[in-house]
Structure formats: structure tokens, C-alpha cells
Amino acid sequence: MPESVVNWAILGTGAIANDMVQILKQLPHCDVLAVGSRTVAGANRFGDRWGIPRQYGSYEEAASDKDVDICYIATPSLRHPQDCLLAIKNGKAVLCEKSMAPNDTIAKEIFNAANEANVLCVHGVWSRFFPAMQKVRDLIDAGEIGEIRSARASFCQNDGAGSCSALLETGIYCAQFLQWALGDPGASEPMVRGACRTIHESGNDEHVTAIIGFQGKKMGSFECSLAHCSDRSATIYGTGGVIEIPFPFWCPTTVKVTKMTGLGSQKWSEPKLYEFPLPTEITTLLQSDDGKEGTFNFCNSQGLAYEAAEVNRCFREGLKESPSFSTAQCIEVLRLITDIGARAP
């Protein structure tokens, strides 16, 4: 029996929505049926551009469309909680762009509402769905670099300082990476051991560093910023070597393993590279003015296909969460973010 078509509604018409709609329209047995915007004109512009038949001048109308299966929440981040709850109230599955909530308490409210409504709810931290990320975990579990002792991540960009929280904008990618690299099923909760930050005149944090302790004497550290640049890479350190994830570590296509042995760990093996090309079947759907292929707004946006395909799979199978980024994992990451914000002077 052929798979049924999963119908999506896009709530929001910004840059990430423009990338995601192109992905969804190229996935098998998947359609973008509706778009919701704050104005009819905004919905019409977006809908006409991408060939979306149902164009609504409010998020409520799009979320209540009886033929919609999944709502993609791409509204301004401060609206994410209310728009998640709006979709859930209307019986829709939800994929919410990060950050779905400013803290773990509000995230729990969203997930509790989804559980009561018996609908799927996924926080769109897309890193978790990349094949390269699964390879990282496989290498750790196989003991490729011995016993894991620490990890670091850096996500600093000179863009957006003051407009939002760096911790919620880029720090969440760092925190989820440390959880992925250092966390273990059944382990005690990781704890924030130290943090510091600088505050923009707007009141939002613009630069944050943090240290997190994990069970088994494992330590993680990260730095995030919207006011300056870093190489935006991540590294995992073990007793027998290192695993490096170069730029862009939050949507990775390359994993590098270097083993280290001998006196002072000074004997380095030839690095082994694992490459995971982005889906070749996913392309931009618009051409530029000179007739050449257009571009996505964000780095490696083709990789949104991994996340969207997983949400489609979970919906078809009647799941209420994705095992790739479970409710418990999401809440733990947001608890760490909340604790860092509270601890940093």
C-alpha cells in the first residue's frame, strides 16, 4: 500500500521558513498545504512564491485547517511557545524551530499539552538528525578513542547581538552537542559547574561561556556569542585520541578521528575522515535573476531534509516523540540552558 501524503502548514514566513518549505516540497509523499502569517499580504507573498494553495492571514487559521497534519513553527522565537500550544490545541503534530521555549519549565508545559492531546511534538534542533552526528555516537560507543573524558563546542558569530539571547540562539547547539557526546542513558543529570556572560545594552546576553559536569568524571565546555566570530567547531577528547567535527558542527558533514598513543600521547595516527555529503536530491527551487540555481538562506539547509523526513516517519508511525531527540533530552538541554543563565553573573 502506498504511503499517504503528510500535509504540512508553515507558520511564519521568514528566512528559515523559506528554506524549510523547499525541503518539504521535495520529500516523497509530503505536501505543504497551508501557510499562516500575521497578515494576508504576507501569507499571499509566501504562498504565491512557493505554490502553497491555502494562504491564511493568521496563525490560528492555518493551525485549524482540518486537512493539515503537521505545523512547522517558524514564527519569531518569542512566539514559539504560544504557537506550539495553538497547533497542539487544534490537534496538529508540531515541529518547532529552536528554541521552542525560553526555559525548561515552559518546554514541559508544551510537551505535557502534546501528551494530553496525543500528538507528536519535536523540537527542531536539527543537528541530531544528521548522519554525521550518528557516526559520532557510533565512534564513541565503539571505543574508537578510548574512554571519553571531555568535549568542547564553540558557536560564535558576529550577527544579531542584542536582538535575542546568544544562549538560546547558538548556545543551545553547543549544549545539545555536549549532551550527545558526554551523556549516557540512565546516567545522573549533568550539572552546570560554572558560567559567565556579557550583556548587551538591550538586556540580552551576547557572549556566554559555561562548564558542565557529566557522570563518570566527564566535563564539557562551550562558548557562544552573537558579537564575535569563532571557528564554530566541536571536539571530543578521549584517553586514546580525539574526534573533531569542523565547521559547521551544528549541521555537520565531516567527522575526523585522530588516535594518540605513546609517551605523552605524542604518537598521532594518520587522521581518518568520515564524509557525509548532503542529500543530492535536494536542491533550491528558485533561480536567481541570471538564471542560475538559487541558494538557501542558511548553511547546509539541505540537511533539514533529515529532520523533516524523521518527523514524517514519526507521524506516520503514530509516535509522540522522535527517538533522535526525545522529550527528556530536549527538556534536559533547556534545563542546562536555564541553569547557565541563572548561574552566570
Question: How does this model look, in words?
Answer:
The chain is an alpha/beta fold and 345 residues long. The chain contains 9 helices and 15 strands. The strands form 2 sheets. Strands 7, 8, 9, 10, 11, 12, 13, 14 and 15 form a 9-stranded mixed beta sheet that branches. Helix 1 (15-24) crosses helix 8 (304-316) and helix 5 packs antiparallel against helix 9 (327-343). The termini are far apart.
Multimerization state? single chain
Radius of gyration: 20 Å
Distance between the termini: 59 Å
- Tell me the overall shape: globular
Q: How many beta-strand elements? A: 15
**Helix/strand order:** EHEHEHEHEHEHEHEEEEEEEEHH
Low-confidence stretches: none
Beta-strand content bin: 25-35%
Provide the helix percentage: 25-40%
Individual helix count: 9
**Mean pLDDT across residues:** 96
Largest sheet data: 9 strands, mixed
Q: SS-based structural class?
A: alpha/beta
